[in-house]
Amino acid sequence: MSRLKRLNIITTHSNSGVEDHGAAKNQGLHASEMQVGLTSSQEYQPMNEQGNIVDDVAQNEELAEVNGAPKKGRGHTQKMDIWKMNSTERICVTFDKFGLPVGDEGRELGQYIGTLVRMAENVSIEYTDWRKVPTKKKEDMYSLVKSKFTFHPVETSQIKKWIFSSMGKKWRTWKGILKSRGYDPSLTIDEIVAQQTNNDERVNKTQFKELVSRWFTPEFQNTCVKKRSSRLKMKEPHVTGTKSFARLAHEMAMKNDGVYPTRGEMYIKTRTRKDGSIVDDEALGVVTSLKAIASNSTSTRGDQDDFVNDDYSKVKGAEKRGYVRLIGKIPVTKSNGDSQIIQQLESATQTINHLHGAFNVMVNIIQEHIPNANLSTILSNMNLQVPRIGSSIESTSRSTNDGERVDKR
């Protein structure tokens, strides 16, 4: 339970909303405030194939098993401290402006999602593609996530999309882990299945046999060869381990009075080893160019969301659709430039609607207190005009259309 003491925990009440147990996690939470206890007998808990609740074990970064020798640890991640939380409590996860989780709570969310997709009763490893997993199963797991976590500042479709994507990524990683430690062409399918299911209670025998059978097909073997070849061609690898770029950027900002790093600064950070060396020669060239831009620049840092003219784009070029390097997988429309314009228009529209609403409230107050007042005369002295009914919609539409015309020019 010690891990949870550092997290921002809130308590929910059936009819009275949410009670915050304290301020942000940086202020700390006392054990007396936590009130973390065992869940009720009806609450869902992780179980093995025999129906027994799995014992709590320490966290172990299993992803390392895919890329190299397994990390020496005390067992696989189970997050039993989260499973055993009181049913009225939620871990409050902060998401950044791109809809990506940050902070220690973000780490716990990611690891918890990892435990969900490794449970055979939640999602089968028989599926050949995450897109073929029934939506209901994904929704059921999302409900389990919401039973343990709440999202700040507010739950959005973008956050839900990220969680679904994280589920898919961790599900694929789980299948990769099983293959990396179980596949042996000298053994039969049944021998591999028996060996793996005896060593890991999370592996369903029927599901795993179907997966192992697929490993031996020519189509799967050819795919593995192609992916292995592509992997060997990868350059400029990052050295941040399992920590997401969003969490890393957040940590860097907290150490810099809330000022977030540029993408160039993120690149340098993520390609520099602990001993100060750069991961490879190509990355060294990029780092040298980025440092030269920083040292020769006399301007301010500029817009942190400008992915077209920032330091990194000057060295590495424009972004591809649907992905912004050193940020993560975020929704992008047509191009990053178009996306930024659309975001600006949406923000301006919200501001206009807010100001228009406040203006209407002021007009109503004047009419209430001065019934016979000539509003046109009063407002003309203020260089304002009485709005017509529905003008809010007109102004919003006009602003959006004007913005589109500017974009096209």
TrEMBL record:
It comes from Deinandra increscens subsp. villosa. InterPro entries: Probable_transposase_24. Residues 390-409 are annotated as: Disordered. This is Transposase.
